[in-house]
Specification:
The structure holds two protein chains of two kinds. Chain A has helices at 9-27, 34-48, 52-55, 57-62, 73-91, 104-124, 128-137, 141-160. Chain A is mainly α. In chain A, helix 2 (34-48) packs across helix 5 (73-91) and helix 7 packs across helix 8. Chain B has two domains: 8-217, no CATH class; 231-376, Oxidized Rhodanese, domain 1. Chain B has a five-stranded parallel beta sheet with strand order 1-5-4-2-3. The relative contact order of chain B is 0.08. The chains are: A mainly alpha, B mainly alpha. Chains A and B meet through helix 1, helix 2, helix 4, helix 5 and helix 6 of A and helix 1, helix 2, helix 3, helix 4 and helix 5 of B.
């Protein structure tokens, strides 16, 4: 099956905005992604560097141990993302359709990039979803500092470290 | 809000919808994100700004209509130095992976190996954060600021922020069309229907918000100012300001039933509480409000603050404190250096204002403070 073309960005944006609005109204919070990694990684983080998490409020607030993943909103939401994206990819013919996703360069960039995003999101209290998108819609000051700085840095790094497998 | 049900009831459907939209729009494909970062493909801007503006305008109008209580919605905290550093680290990782945490999950769910690698990297980076933390501690506040918004931090109405963000989003969409198509300026400036609707809704909200007396989301910031005690001045400090002839000082007496025989703090002007609604205050002025005990003055302060007047302070403990601390200051019971210096300063001020400093007890009998009238 040939992959179907992508949806128009502006229409996708409006649809995503309505989902975000539903989340604000029904769940009393915005959507997110890195928060689920924080909940899931917190026990591991505590095991890797014992004592350090408990010793700092700033750190223990960022890597909360008190949440049970299967009862935690953000973990369940990210499971929903995995399911929804998986179904959508299969229905639109994009499941394993990519050919540029497995070179050593691409995989190592993704791994290193993921690690930096993990650290950056803990420092910043969120990522492009929980902070930029949800916080942006709530006019959060921190979110509107994060948006230009994160995208500005990303543009600069893309220019300096081009990735031929992505056509940059 | 559905807070009496298991979190899965809202989390899973919302997550599924989020995942489908990200996958359909192409944000799970690193080529699309890399294309945005080199300015060739504006999908990320369209999805993100489209979503931010849609949700923002939806919330603005829902709260203006009383359908949503903004105070019940959890907001990310603000800690600007930590978030600036975090944004730079995150931005570097975002560029390398050409995926963000959410879209990395979408890529992984689409069977992409780089998506899986980014998810594994996210997990590792999050779990290893404590190992790097000691080097970052200087950037991080132990307790971040809750509920900081652009409106409260910049001191501008929420409606204006909403309008400016909407305009910025529309300009970003126009820039995207320009860079993608190289079309003529005239055709670029032709707005799409959603763009026109968003601008109209934002402009109308800005007007409604400017007219309303208590715009949504602004009371939290005022409460924070009160909690941090940025809102008052003590009697000795005010006396010093008056004596120094501080420029722009405007002392306002909001006590009720004043007559010509009532003692006012020198230079103070009586203003009825009802007239505060129309009191004109210039930015260069420093208003100080007082009443008998301080309660009425504090209420007057909130009225002015809600009107957007930020340069007002309350005289702490009101006229009672002025009488006790400025007009008849009490010598310290156990004189130590700082108390003695403070009393000397108070006595000098008292004399200047024509008051009667109480004397140092000679027979050791305790001199009690005059009982303060704790009225409004």
């Amino acid at each position: 099956m040939t992959p179907r073309p992508y949806m128009d960005g502006a229409r996708a944006g409006i649809a995503l905005g309505l989902v975000l609005l539903a989340s604000f109204v029904l769940a009393g919070r915005g959507i997110g992604a890195s928060g689920a990694f924080a909940v899931a990684a917190a026990p591991v983080a505590g095991a890797v560097t014992p004592g350090s998490v408990a010793g700092s409020t700033a750190l223990s607030d960022r890597l909360p141990r008190e949440f049970v993943p299967w009862n935690d909103w953000i973990v369940l939401e990210l499971l929903g993302v995995l399911v929804g994206a998986g179904i959508s990819a299969r229905l639109s013919g994009r499941w394993r359709a990519a050919t540029n996703d497995r070179t050593a360069g691409r995989v190592s960039r993704a791994l290193a990039g993921g690690a930096l995003m993990g650290l950056g999101a803990r420092l910043a209290w969120g990522c492009t979803s929980g902070l930029a998108l949800s916080g942006g819609a709530l006019l959060s000051t921190g979110a509107w500092l994060f948006i230009p700085l994160a995208f500005g840095t990303a543009i600069l790094v893309t220019m300096l470290a081009r990735d031929p497998s992505l056509g940059t | 809000m559905l807070d009496h049900v298991h979190p899965a009831v809202t989390a899973i459907p919302i997550g599924i919808a989020f995942g489908i939209i990200l996958e359909r729009s192409g944000l799970g494909d690193p080529r699309v994100i890399a294309g945005q970062l080199i300015g060739r493909n504006f999908t990320v801007v369209r999805v993100m700004f489209g979503a931010i503006v849609t949700a923002m305008l939806g919330l603005a109008w829902a709260s203006a209509a009383g359908l949503v209580d903004m105070g019940s919605i959890a907001m990310p905290p603000t800690d600007l130095p930590a978030q600036a550093l975090g944004a730079v680290v995150f931005g570097g990782g975002f560029a390398l992976a050409a995926l963000c945490p959410g879209t990395a999950c979408v890529a992984a769910s689409s069977g992409r190996r780089d998506g899986l690698a980014a998810v594994a990297g996210m997990f590792a980076g999050t779990a290893l954060t404590p190992a790097i933390w000691p080097a970052l501690a200087g950037f991080v506040a132990e307790v971040p600021t809750e509920n900081a918004t652009l409106a409260s931090d910049l001191g501008v109405p929420t409606g204006l922020v909403v309008l400016l963000i909407t305009i910025a989003a529309v300009l970003a969409m126009i820039l995207g069309r320009g860079l993608e198509t190289r079309a003529s300026v005239g055709s670029l400036l032709r707005l799409s229907t959603p763009e026109s609707v968003a601008l109209a809704l934002a402009a109308a909200f800005a007007l409604v918000d400017a007219r309303s007396t208590l715009p949504a989301g602004r009371t939290g910031a005022i409460a924070a100012e009160i909690a941090h005690e940025h809102d008052h001045v003590d009697a000795l400090e005010l006396a010093t300001w008056i004596r120094e002839g501080r420029a722009g000082l405007r002392v306002v007496d909001v006590r009720e039933h004043l007559d010509t025989a009532t003692y006012l703090i020198p230079g103070a002007v009586p203003v009825d509480l009802e007239d505060l609604d129309t009191l004109r205050v210039r930015d260069s002025e420093q208003v100080v409000l007082y009443s008998d005990g301080g309660a009425h003055a504090a209420q007057a302060w909130v009225l002015l603050r809600v009107r957007g007047i930020r340069n007002a302070l309350v005289l702490k403990d009101g006229m009672a404190a002025w009488e006790d601390e400025v007009l008849s200051p009490l010598p310290p019971a156990t004189p130590d250096d700082s108390a003695t210096v403070r009393f000397a300063r108070a006595r000098a001020l008292s004399m200047w204002f024509g008051g009667f400093p109480r004397l140092v007890p000679v027979d050791g009998a305790p001199v009690t403070r005059s009982r303060r009238r704790r009225t409004c």
